[in-house]
Amino acid sequence: MGNHLFPSILEYLQEPYEDRPMLDKLNRLEKLGYLISTEAWQGIRHTRNKFTHDYPDDAEKNAALINIASEAAELMCWMLASIEKKLHREQGAFKLGSPLSVSYPKRWTMHIKAGAQN
To answer: What's the gap between Cα 78 and its chain centre?
Structure first.
């Protein structure tokens, strides 16, 4: 989402941010209402980096990290659903590609639907 979707949204909206740092892009998307929180996205990235760079041997730490990642994945799904809804609402002729072929757990689907209504 960060490397492709966010810059693509700014490009589609004709926002001149292609050469700006990622933090500037995130802040602009937040200001435009396409990102709920720059800090939330940075938290998701931090969680991703923990998986990539940390290899704890402690089973409890691994379990805690998996729980945090599960929450981050849920937040990402909600963010994506919110972005999709905003694009459809504000860019009426905008057509997204094929619908996501991901099967979300029932609790995520309910959360995404509830969040996308806001």
So the answer is: 7
CA separation for the pair 77, 65 (Å, rounded): 18
Boundaries of every domain in the chain: 5-116
Identify whether the C-beta of residue 69 lies closer than 8 Å to the C-beta of residue 113. Answer: no
99 contact partners, CB below 8 Å, separation of at least 6: none
Q: Which two tokens stand for residue 34?
A: 């396409």
Q: Which residues 6+ apart lie within 8 Å of 42 measured at CB?
A: 26
Q: How many other C-beta atoms lie within 10 A of the C-beta of residue 86? A: 17
Structure tokens at 58: 């402690």
Q: Six-digit token pair at 28?
A: 């602009």
Whether the model clears a pTM of 0.85, i.e. scores above it, the answer is no
Tens of pLDDT, residues 23-76? 999 999 999 999 888 998 998 888 888 877 666 677 787 788 888 888 888 888
Torsion, Cα of 4, 10, 16, 22 (10° steps): -50
- Size (the chain), residues: 118
